[in-house]
Amino acid sequence: MLKRMMAGAALVALLPFGVQAQEVPKKVYQLHQRLLTLDSHLDTPASLDLPGWSIEDEHGVHSDYTQVDLPRMKKGGLDGGFWAIYTPQGPLTEEGFRKARDFAILRGVSIRQMVAADPANFTLALEAKDAVPIAAAGKRVVFMSIENAYPLGEDVSLLKTFYDMGVRVVGFAHFAHNQFADSSTDPSKKPRFGGLSPLGKDLLKEMNRLGVVPDASHSSDQVLDDLLALSTTPVLLTHSGCKAVYDHPRNIDDAHLKALAAKGGVIQMNAFGAYLRASKPNPARQEALKALFGQLREDAKLSPEKRAELLAKRQEIDRLYPETDRATFDDFMAHMLHALKVAGPDHVGIGLDWDGGGGVVGLEDVLDLPKITAALLKAGYSEADVQKIWSGNVLRVLAAAEAAKGS
Predict the structure, then answer these.
(1) Coiled-coil region(s) at which residues (predicted)?
(2) Which residue in 111, 109, 33 sits closest to 73, CA to CA?
(3) How far is the C-alpha of 28 from the C-alpha of 373, rounded, in Å?
């Protein structure tokens, strides 16, 4: 899968991009710009450590494959969101835990440095109530999250270190089982714990104590069952989809959607094409990409020259082996509208997986975000509903975790 192949150094996104979003009506665009818009899963911190890359500059999704930067956030009307500390799953050993811990701390430092370097445009948010005034001041909202709790090793008290850094949402697993929980996509296709491990239950208790929101995305359905049964606060799925639309392990079924909503939780809709619908295999492309990412894994730190070379190779792969059967904006909206129908507008949000594999035809980068607002309005949802979907629901879950902490 994407992040596993890219490991520490990254070209950031795998999918080729070629189709621009259609224009939205001026009145809808103006409304979108007025809304408080937060994405619950930004993998953009991976871009911060790329050589020669700056969040301050406008980049092109067609040239360097990145999807989020400050100029595009302003144009696309994205006020901010949850900037993820993502760590690839490694060996469940003392050495593996140590390396993952160090990597995760440094990635968190990169996020904090982004904020410190430009206080006129970025502000760290630590509580739900921080988001509105930050956006009102014309700045981007920077909540922090962890995708894959693997770097915590076997010491759940380490969560406090990340909490003090600013982390407020934590996901338990990623593409493979780890010490805390079963993954929905482990290569073995067999459960390890049948949900949360005993250590995972201890981690959940610590999350509830600190006021950290539990994130069930990437974890198995049985993990979600455990979280719904044991968590003292609502559960978030920061970037997921609906099994009823496309039966993929990364998506959840209607019964789980209803159970999530009944406990006050929220599903944030993903735009990762492989999870939205089936596509025709493209083996030549996959082999070429596999070789390219093998080179990435060999270079722990990319020089600007090496990155330019790899980008050129990536563009050549797109030319030779174009992906002609990509998921589309309509596929994304099918998942969104189904979740809204089943769970209701109080329990659905947006987490598109930008810079981590998200992006489909017609929804290529953050410049295209007004299309979502337009589509929701066209589907009959009110401005108040759209505001909840864009930020109100995720902030409610965060506020609930804050209110219950220490209890």
Answers:
(1) none
(2) 33
(3) 7
The CATH architecture one would assign to domain 22-279+327-404 is Alpha-Beta Barrel (3.20)
Between CA 20 and CA 29, with CA 26 as vertex, the angle to 5 degrees is 70
Mean pLDDT score across all residues of the chain: 93
> Other C-beta atoms within 10 Å of 295: how many?
14
Question: What's the Cα-to-Cα distance from 212 to each of 63, 139, 322, 397, rounded to whole Å?
Answer: 37, 24, 42, 10
The Cα–Cα gap between 272 and 283 comes to 19
pTM of the model: 0.93
* Count, residues in the chain: 407
* % of the chain exceeding 70 in pLDDT: 94
**60-91 confidence digits (pLDDT tens):** 999 999 999 999 999 999 999 999 999 999 99
Pairing of strands 266-269, 236-242: parallel
- CA–CA dist 172, 233 (Å, integer): 16
3-state secondary structure of 233: coil
Confidence of residue 298 (pLDDT cuts 50, 70, 90): low
Segment 38-66 shows an average pLDDT of: 96
pLDDT one-digit tens code per residue, 308-325: 999 999 999 999 999 999
Sign of the dihedral through C-alpha 369, 377, 84, 149: negative
Instruction: List phi, psi (to 5°) of 241.
Output: -140, -165
Asked if residues 250 and 218 have their Cβ atoms less than 8 Å apart, the reply is yes
> Taking the domains of the chain in order of start, what are their residue ranges?
22-279+327-404
